[in-house]
Design brief:
Number of helices: 7
Shape: elongated
Strand order of the largest sheet: 2-1-3-4
Largest sheet: 4 strands, mixed
Oligomer: single chain
Radius of gyration: 17 Å
Number of strands: 4
CATH topology of the largest domain: Glutaredoxin
CATH class of the largest domain: Alpha Beta
Distance between the termini: 30 Å
Strand content: 5-15%
Bound molecules: FE2/S2 (inorganic) cluster
CATH architecture of the largest domain: 3-Layer(aba) Sandwich
Helix content: 40-55%
Structural class: alpha+beta
């Protein structure tokens, strides 16, 4: 079945487009909206968005594949994105990744069987001054260490971290 936006999404999209002098300028905000709704940006959704904005599909695809903030596949309830760029690397990011792989039993790019966690290693999150940093969905957790990470995992397992 071809991808269709909901009426609600279309209404929100028009409001967002109206804020810009040209419809194509709303591309990134609308990709965020799509991800907020479904948790990821589906391939068919990119095609539909290109039509909605009057853009070539290749432009939408290029933006989605360039920015790691856009998920191209469904992710778990908590998407753990550990920065592995230089400041975070020097502050222990690899140790955090190793700990997460071991505690969750998954590698980067994988999701736990219960659908709770997806693990990713990403490039600089722009918070180098408080390295090491991990983004969980939209929220940043900074100055992490093993203890903080373990406590955070427990909080997420018990639903004490808002999605
Ligand atoms: S290097 Fe990790 S936030 Fe910049």
């Amino acid at each position: 079945m071809p991808f269709k936006f909901t009426e609600d999404f279309k209404a929100r999209a028009e409001k967002i487009c109206a804020k810009y002098p040209r419809r194509d300028a709303a591309l990134i905000p609308l990709l965020h909206e799509m991800q907020k709704e479904a948790g990821y940006v589906a391939e068919e959704g990119m095609d539909a968005l290109a039509l909605l904005l009057g853009l070539p599909y290749s432009r939408v695809k290029a933006v989605v594949t360039f920015y790691t903030m856009f998920n191209r596949e469904p992710v778990g309830k908590y998407h753990l994105q550990v920065c592995r760029n230089i400041s975070c690397h020097m502050a222990g990011a690899e140790g955090l990744l190793t700990r997460l792989r071991s505690r969750l039993g998954i590698a980067e790019g994988e999701t736990t069987k219960d659908g709770l966690f997806t693990l990713s290693a990403v490039e600089c999150l722009g918070a180098c001054g408080s390295a090491p940093v991990m983004q969980v969905n939209e929220k940043y957790f900074e100055n992490l260490n093993d203890e903080k990470l373990d406590a955070l995992l427990e909080d997420m397992k018990h639903g004490r971290v808002q999605r």
